[in-house]
């Protein structure tokens, strides 16, 4: 069973990471951060700073994403009756709201395929288009 995100140990670790970030912002080297906060070495201090940066950037983005999602839901609820009654403008607006929500939630993210194989082309059998009498090759 994994440890609770609000356990004393996890809270202390996050606070230590925040202190490491503050020291780095003040210009302290990773060696200095490791020495000050008790990390085994500069790589531990670096990881702590990067983790703190990730958290400071991720949390506000997730919060904002949630707010935007709620706004889109409110808009959809407001326009739904008109769209369902056949109002073409409302339908168009509803589709745009749904598209925006799909982008926000990453539902339309690209799917990439890794296809491996080979293809051969026989140049002996390939020939140039024949010229017609009028000078046109027959190609567009």
Domains (count)? 1
Q: Give the total of beta strands.
A: 0
Compressed to H and E, one letter per element, the order equals HHHH
Describe the largest sheet.
Answer: none
Structural category: mainly alpha
Shape: flat
Helix percentage range: 55-70%
Mean pLDDT: 83
Uncertain spans, ≥5 residues at pLDDT below 50? none
Which band does the percent of strand residues land in? under 5%
CA-to-CA gap between the ends? 67 Å
What's the Cα radius of gyration? 30 Å
Tally of individual helices: 4
Topology (elements, then pairings):
Layout: H1 8-25, H2 30-37, H3 42-84, H4 88-105
Helix pairs in contact: 1-2, 1-3, 2-3, 3-4
What does this structure look like?
This protein is mostly helical. The protein has one domain (8-105). The chain is 62% helix and 0% strand. It is built from four helices and no strands. It has helices at residues 8-25, 30-37, 42-84, 88-105.
Summarize the structure.
The chain is mostly helical. The protein has helices at residues 8-25, 30-37, 42-84, 88-105.
Features:
flat, 140 residues, mainly alpha, single chain, 62% helix
């Amino acid at each position: 069973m994994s440890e609770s995100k609000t356990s004393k140990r996890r809270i202390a670790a996050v606070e230590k990471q925040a202190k490491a970030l503050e020291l780095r912002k003040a210009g302290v080297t990773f060696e200095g951060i490791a020495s000050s906060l008790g990390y085994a070495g500069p790589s531990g201090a670096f990881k702590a700073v990067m983790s703190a940066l990730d958290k400071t950037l991720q949390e506000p983005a997730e919060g904002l994403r949630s707010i935007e999602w709620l706004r889109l839901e409110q808009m959809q609820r407001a326009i739904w009756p008109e769209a369902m009654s056949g109002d073409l403008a409302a339908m168009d607006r509803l589709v745009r709201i749904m598209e925006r929500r799909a982008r926000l939630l990453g539902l339309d993210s690209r799917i990439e395929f890794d296809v491996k194989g080979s293809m051969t082309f026989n140049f002996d059998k390939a020939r140039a288009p024949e010229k017609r009498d009028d000078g046109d090759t027959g190609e567009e």
